[in-house]
Amino acid sequence: MMRSPYLLRFFSKFHLFFGGVLLVPLLVDLFSETSGESNSISVERSLLGWLLPAVVMVSLGVYLHKQYKKNYEEEDLPGLSRREGFLLVGLVWTLMIAWGTIPFLLTGAIQDFAGAIFESASGFTTTGATVLTDIQAAPKSILLWRSLSHWIGGMGIIVLSVAILPEMALGGMQLFSAEASGLSGGEKLAPRIRETASRLWLLYAGLTALETVLLMYPGDMSFFDAINHAFATTATGGFSPNNASIGGYQNGWVEGIITLFMILAGLNFALQYKVYLNLDFQRFWKNSELRIYLLVLAAATILISCNLWWTQETIQTTAGTEVESGFASMLRYAGFQVVAILTTTGFGTADFDQWPLFSKSLIVIMMAIGGCAGSTAGGLKIIRILVLFKHMARECSRLLIPNLVKPISVDKKSIDDSIIWGVMGFISLYIVALVLCTVIMCVLPHSPPDAPTPPVPTGQEWSMDLDTAASASLSALNSIGPGLGNVGPMKNYAFIHPIGKIALAFCMLLGRLEIYSLLILLLPTFWKKR
After folding, report:
1. Which domain covers residue 64, as residue numbers?
2. Contact, 497 vs 384, CB < 8 A?
């Protein structure tokens, strides 16, 4: 039977924090109203959309805190059980998405419930896909809320991947631990999750602040745009207040800074913390996952650049302009898109859906791979791909030498076979989820992409093509944002059937929680009393 003290204490703090965060967009709304901005929300609508949910959240947090204080003493708390850990992880993201939906509906920014769920899930899972058709027409408070949801989700993902999921030991999650992903000899960041979280969040906030400053001053970006992009970049989210994403600024410095911070956000945060703390940059190069990560970035950039240059393709930017086919231009746009896709950030400067088939194929491969373990990036993760290939090589060797005993190791650390089979199981579930979501997207009757106004009139339904369905599913499962076809970097997800939006939102949550953490909550045996 599950005990409740930890859950009561945590969720009391969670609701107090969430209620406080809701006041930030309210202040932005009130400032926009007094400044007379054309796309501001009325005071009444703003109070309804932000203040009312904030009051409810804070009240709920106070109530839960009183219940905790009434029934439990701090020193009498038992340890958090394994089942409670799974429940905590699943509930946190589910509640964030549910409560995050409320402002979209009450402010009128998004009219339909499925669309609001989709946008909220896309934010907190750091996916970056949107149902908004005109982002720049949205109120600043909504734009900030979207970016804040990225940043808050990213904070949770860091601790989840470094300190919590490895303890659950499912799907090879032990590979995500601080020790397994760059810290030597059993060396830990801190003995307690709370201390580990505070240290990683300090690095996370520091990178966000540094990027904001660099985008504002050398980058000549407004504070509002800079902080929104910094929130989205550090969380590898991808929401931008500009309709054309990063390409709308047409600023090489901005692209360079965001590229750098996307690369950093795709690295293991525990490893980064130790490197920066001790100024031991050699530790970076000793990490095999990081070396492969940089190698994949460089190789994909060069291959796509050469392909674009060889075919003499004219690059269509997200701002709607065309760029001539010089190799330097190809390198600039290919490099940015490769980094944005591999780190699963999803920002755009070019419409890669118009690129040659070879380049698009590499983009799809980048979508599947994702970033490093212990980062805010989504995807399968480099470390899992590395273990998969080492396992395949060992099995091939066993065809020649059946009695071969050859342990798989990463960075001179032997990987237990139970972890390897956990990785294989995770990849199998990943493929099943991808196929099922793709089938659902193909079966549903969607609105025509050029006229996404639900409900769809009878006889005017649009059947989604396989490219769009598969890339939308892959994008949701890997927390990327843009896909191919009608969900490409120049498009949005507004036309998708409401059931499809809910299915994609579920995929976002499934991928973000590393599949097992969510699926285990759906098992009847999980809820049986013991």
Report:
1. 1-87
2. no
